[in-house]
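Justification of resources, computational component.

The compute hours requested in this renewal are based largely on the per-chain cost of generating structure records like the one below. Each record pairs the submitted sequence with a full structure-token output. That output is archived, and it is also reused by downstream analysis tasks.
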Amino acid sequence: MNEIFATPQPIAATVSVAGARLRVIASDRTDTAVLAEPIESAEPIGSAEPIKVAFSRGHLTVKATRSGEKITIYVPAGSSLVAYASHSDVQAAGPLGDCELHSASSRVRLDRVDSLQANTAGGEIEVGHVAGRASVRGGGRIVILEI
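The structure output for this chain reads:
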């Protein structure tokens, strides 16, 4: 799957994954791209699309409906991110705006965010830099290198 949307300014992205590898890359760009493929090269099971992508009025929604997906999302710098991750590996590179995380047994690494609100039930969260406020609740390993 390869979806591209014209986005000349930062967007709001909401992503929901379970058992996936998610990469979000924020940079100076005028579009948003979503690339997805199975982690292993197995044929899809059933007729349902494994990844659902929607974009409307500056808001991107991505939902992985089964585990075993590799998803890469390219967004304009400063875009906000809301991520729901269960048993997933989530990495974000580049400058994001406000970031809200809900994770269960996931590994999350964020480069730079304007603000952070996180709720985790196990797993680990590591953030390189939070420019503003940070609120983290839950258990697991949580590291914020710079606020």
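The longest strand covers residues 89-130. The chain has a mean pLDDT of 93.
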